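User: If only I could read backbone structure tokens as easily as an amino acid sequence. Underneath my words sits a plain record pairing an amino acid chain with its backbone structure tokens. This is the protein in question:
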Amino acid sequence: MCALPPGSTIGILGGGQLGRMLAVAAAQLGYSVHIYCPEKNNPAEQVSNSATHATYEDLEALAAFAQAVDVVTYEFENIPVETVNDIANTTPVFPNSEVLKISQDRLSEKTFINDLGIDTAPFKAVSSAQEAIEALRDIGYPAVLKTRRFGYDGKGQVIVKSEDEIVAAWDGLNSDKIIIEGFIEFDLEISVVAVRSQDGEVKCFAPVENEHKNHILDLSIAPARIGADLREEAVAKATRIIENIDYVGVLTVEFFVSSKEPKLRVNEIAPRVHNSGHWTIEACPSSQFEQHIRAICGLPLGDCSFTGEARMTNLIGEDIFELPDLLAEPGANVHHYGKSDVKPGRKMGHVTRLNPEPS
């Protein structure tokens, strides 16, 4: 493992709030940041040294970007695999493109997880409404139809409760690459943010409990209100996943927790820093963003320890107008993402509150 010296430049594919917080963490460790993003005046660019505005298919722009930086990472998982491979011909990219191939296709993702001996919801890939009807005779109702690619925050999926609803649901998804998942009754959702260094060291933050509104993360509670055995099991399974894909950087594993066996099922993996890990900025010696920068730059991993309780609340849409009151609230750690257009469902910022004792 050869560490990048301070003054080196980190290239980040994507210009959203995750890239913004990665850039801040990079600056803290003495690195410059170059953002590559099609959109101008993006949140990450506002706190970075330089930016390239071009599509992810622009080979000439990608080549110039790769030559201008010392290492490359990405802040969201829908970067084209070909883009990462092109850059990797010139400059190291962490995580590598193999994890994108897995995580960008729900069928590949769930197959990979099951092959590790880790449970998911029952699933089946289908390519027509008739195949869906036949598959659901085995899986049962209710069930969830999901596009295999490009779904997030509840997009690209629909619940069906009877055979009568399948055709309309199928037409609404507008794809012939669909995965059907059996509907899982669960008590809560948790996630584990894990990090793996270039020399294979793995560390995990405390499992966190997530609550959603309109399919968008609303509140994360750390630590998750589950027993010690389940916490250990979740960390062990997240570790098994990150160790089996030659991964470098932060990876997040979401689980459904049920009172019935199996008590833990993986919902999905995200090959990046994650919304449910924002609380680590104030609550841990090394945040998820710093850990990611450490890993991709070949530095020793930091400390993930955490005592007490943290609660992170997303500021969605017009929630950002509460900013003056939040700034006046003692103990509120407020983050504004620098987005000028306020839209329903858009993540505009977050606030983290720390307590010395779990509640």
